[in-house]
Specification:
The chain contains 14 helices and ten strands. It is of the alpha/beta class. The protein has a domain at 52-158 and 228-261 and 283-301 and 321-337: 3-Layer(aba) Sandwich (Rossmann fold), CATH 3.40.50. The strands form three sheets. A five-stranded mixed beta sheet has the order 5-3-2-4-10, with helices on both faces. Strand 2 (64-68), helix 4 (76-85) and strand 3 form a beta-alpha-beta unit. The chain is globular and about 70 Å long. The protein starts with a helix and ends in a 12-residue tail after the last helix.
């Protein structure tokens, strides 16, 4: 009797959640997963041009070393940079390596004898703290060979996806239930937060290929982590990086600060502003422009977000393959203007 009862309840739930899982579509985006939002509404649509991803080259052939975060892990923009400049790129995950500046530059020089450029890549919301910690680290112990190697990101040859995966199992009943509830919140005229993800209204509906292209998804940290930023704090970060840059040049390596804009920063001009919308002051970018010696990816991306759809992924906080292509081109142009290499592009677009 009890077995029949529980079996009946199970089959009843399956009859409800299976159609919902098919309707919501397979999860592919970080913001849809975290925020309990459906790919049906926020997944990108249509086919894309595949972007080449290169295999990590041998250490002895490396010209550029990247210390970066999740924007660098896929090796998409680095592969494009290689195609534009001929430079071989090695990447290290900043979350896996505690950098002691006293030893790190020496370690890089020993492992990569041909290195010319050190790129410190960070997403905007973590930039100030990372700049300060890199230059003002009090860590005394140097990395062991094994620790250094553990931080290196290795990739195999491949391409980015041309099409988004639509069908796939969703067995998380909590996700299905909370996503179902959020369907009713999407018609709100105000911004709302769902599990750390902002859902805000856009003035335009032609910035993304997603079904709900009238909405912008972004992480709450795009706002929260900048609340403590002051002119003094940001200036301290740039002073710290300047100190680190001097040490880098002393090792005959050209330092590059490569800050990827938060999704909110790139699309804030197109948000509908109301009492529920909070947009941080762009003091970091103002300071970067005043300095004049740094690459400005925000300027590059701002010229495209209103002209091309999906520069950032609609369902994620990261760039699309096209967005990665644009920042790689911006870095290639910057290195060319600074005389790091002669611009001999292997590709035209």
């Amino acid at each position: 009797m009890y077995i029949r009862y529980f079996l009946g309840v199970y089959l009843g739930l399956c009859s409800l959640f299976l159609p919902a899982a098919l309707y919501f579509q397979a999860l592919t985006g970080g913001l849809t997963r975290i925020g309990y939002l459906s790919e049906n509404n926020f997944g990108w649509n249509g086919s894309r041009s595949a972007q080449q991803i290169l295999k990590s080259p041998p250490d002895e052939d490396i010209h550029v070393v990247v210390v970066g975060d999740s924007f660098s892990n896929p090796n998409i923009w680095q592969s494009r940079l290689h195609a534009k400049t001929g430079f071989n790129v090695a990447s290290m995950n900043c979350n896996n390596v505690q950098v002691n500046p006293k030893c790190f530059l020496k370690d890089i020089k020993n492992r990569y004898p041909k290195v010319k450029v050190l790129v410190l890549q960070t997403v905007e919301r973590f930039s100030v703290n990372r700049m300060i910690s890199l230059a003002e680290s009090k860590q005394e112990q140097c990395l062991s060979t094994a620790q250094f190697a553990n931080g290196i990101v290795r990739t195999e040859p491949g391409v980015t996806s041309r099409d988004r995966r639509i069908f796939g199992p969703i067995t998380d009943i909590i996700y299905l239930f909370r996503t179902f509830l959020n369907e009713f919140r999407l018609n709100s005229k105000d911004s709302f937060i769902t599990n750390g993800v902002y859902v805000s209204n856009l003035e335009r509906k032609d910035l993304f290929t997603s079904k709900r292209s009238d909405k912008l998804l972004y992480v709450r940290d795009d706002v929260k982590l900048k609340e403590g930023w002051s002119e003094k704090t940001v200036s301290r970060a740039f002073q710290a990086f300047s100190h680190f840059s001097k040490s880098t040049r002393d090792h005959s390596i050209h330092p590059v600060l490569f800050v990827i804009p938060d999704k909110l920063s790139a699309y804030s001009p197109y948000l509908i502003k109301n009492k529920s919308t909070t947009i941080p002051r762009p003091i970091f970018w103002q300071r970067l422009i005043e300095n004049g010696n740094h690459i400005n990816p925000l300027s590059k991306l701002s010229g495209y977000v209103h002209r091309e759809k999906d520069i950032y992924e609609p369902n994620d906080s990261h760039l699309s393959p096209r967005g990665y292509q644009l920042i790689a081109d911006a870095l290639a142009d910057y290195l060319s203007k600074n005389g790091t290499f002669k611009k001999e592009s292997n590709i035209d677009n």
